[in-house]
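Review form for a predicted model. The reviewer records the input and the model, then writes brief findings.
Reviewer: anonymous (R2)
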Amino acid sequence: MILTVTLNAALDVTYRIDALAPHTTHRVREVTTRPGGKGVNVAAVLTQLQEPVVATGLLGGPTGEQIRAGLATAQIPEAFVPIAGDSRRTLVVADGTDATGFWEPGPPVTEAEWEAFVSRFRGLAKVARAVVLSGSLPVGVPNDAYARLVAIANEVAVPSIVDAEGTALGRALPARPTVVKPNAAELASVRGGRTPDTVADVLAAAHALRAAGPGAVVCSRGADGLIASVPHGAYRAAPPAAVSGNPTGAGDAVVAALARGLANGDEWRALLADAVALSAAAVAVPVAGAFDDREYDRLRPTIETEPLILPETLAE
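Model under review:
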């Protein structure tokens, strides 16, 4: 099975409206509520792919019980550790073209609660085929949380993927996760400086980040697909055309595809093409943690993965 970790799980609430305009009143056409947080979204996508998965992390309070009940309804196996604080909610306003998100900060976590989770994770990692560590860290969880969990995964020879930003991502790099998946802004949040925008700039930033420890860096670029610096090469994969919809869960779909590919030992070109197809198919549905099966099947044979050449100053 694939193990997903969501330390700051959420109850995702999605409002669907016709058009978003600031400082006005909106009539909501539909409201959807479901378990969320990046790792939970990854688990939901893997479940739709019929890939064995277990979701774990921290849950507490009435909102935590709603999340747990939603996981049961969605038939996603879970092994969350209880905490005293109330889990957070997130709100996405989707207008059919794009989405605007509002994220609550999450509950405080005690040292004892964190250590209880680490113990739970250690046991689960021993029987996992891949581990996904996604999202923000709630207050009280140490900044090196992902580094510690990556080290545990390495001890039992399980590949790990880290999808985080800022300090949480930066502290994880020396622990040598198998893959990190930043977007361009998250690359800048770790390395400093401006957000890279051209293919050459993103590739250079990804390659430099890989030198800090991870085995591979896969940078998501929205409708422009993925740029990856991996062992023995670099690649770009992109869809033939942009897909309209809600991009909120696209990155989580990329991570789900990466986790499945790592667990199955897939080669990088096929793995990246699959991740792009699944990500685009996720944009075509109105909520995070799901994808359009028909769009996924249509896109899979259309994705091309092209090799990229590193600048001579960066080439190994």
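Findings: The domain at 2-307 is CATH 3.40.1190.20 (UDP-N-acetylmuramoyl-L-alanine:D-glutamate ligase).
Further findings: The longest helix spans residues 268-283.
Recommendation: see findings above.
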